[in-house]
């Protein structure tokens, strides 16, 4: 469970460590284990009265070494550890990595697998934004949105479970396609979910968008101008809330996104309220993409026919010794990737998620390096918090939506 799911909107004196105190100026340490810090984050705040003069984030308390772990696994095994970086969007992690490896291999992916990837990662975007909206509501004392948002997210996790066999870390995308074909009832369960979705989303919007307390606690705080957001390296909703219409799906299309009709919402004021509203608009756009992907889902195989990376069909393994040996070698040793390097970016729920992969021609990645959007969001906090009231700190961090699994990767 994320720390923000337990977040409180106030800070008591005993919750923080006072590092220094001189007349009206005080330096305090919040975290690294505190409900208001959204994960294992320490913030050193310099206060003048109740105004934050300076903020310094510190992270790395739960460093997982995921990138280095991936370099000691085969190309396919590495998918499972990358799943766990942004644990609210594991399919986006899957997608960025397999696209990078497929570039190095020059493997062609079947159309059905491409469209299924688009559909599932857009559902993943909706699920991630719903966690943001639900827990963000808790941060300002609104409990009902949490239950509405998580009820809607459960429907998506049910689809993931039916499709991939797992709710949280599916590792479903494979180099060359999908781990297994979509289930026969996939179309029906997704359509059933989409049918009730607009009404439920409207109920959630009604609870937040016109709530006077929510408006008071989010409007005009944590403001970033477009110039500041660009200079801080922000991408995704945090950048678009400041009025910059940059979206990797439009700027550098992948997975055939250029064939889908959708808009890129942008904000006007760059404050916490815009970051909330923009994610609601993005849910509506993702809903449109999911509908288009479902309506146009091609028939055909879910995995490339390239035997260099694809396991032979089960029927063939039962009758062919060569196929059985090939199956054994692929599973036990993996496949080799030609020497080279590649950078692949995708638009994850939190922004530009990119994977830099280097191969030395072996059966394991020589180097895996990730550009996680949450890392940039955390380092934008000093600018967002400067001049803010201490009571607004929780809301400002919540609106930045960092996931520390990918910060401390």
Automatic annotation (TrEMBL):
It is found in: Cell membrane. InterPro entries: NADH_Q_OxRdtase_suD, NDH1_su_D/H, NiFe-Hase_large. Pfam families: Complex1_49kDa. GO terms for molecular function: NAD binding; NADH dehydrogenase (quinone) (non-electrogenic) activity; quinone binding. The keyword Transport applies. Residues 139-409 form the NADH-quinone oxidoreductase subunit D domain. GO terms for cellular component: plasma membrane. It is a peripheral membrane protein. Its EC number is 7.1.1.-. It catalyses: a quinone + NADH + 5 H(+)(in) = a quinol + NAD(+) + 4 H(+)(out). Keywords: Cell membrane, Membrane, NAD, Quinone, Translocase, Transport. Coiled coil: none annotated. It is an enzyme of class 7 (translocase). NDH-1 is composed of 14 different subunits. Subunits NuoB, C, D, E, F, and G constitute the peripheral sector of the complex. Belongs to the complex I 49 kDa subunit family. NDH-1 shuttles electrons from NADH, via FMN and iron-sulfur (Fe-S) centers, to quinones in the respiratory chain. The immediate electron acceptor for the enzyme in this species is believed to be a menaquinone. Couples the redox reaction to proton translocation (for every two electrons transferred, four hydrogen ions are translocated across the cytoplasmic membrane), and thus conserves the redox energy in a proton gradient. This is NADH-quinone oxidoreductase subunit D. It comes from Caldinitratiruptor microaerophilus.
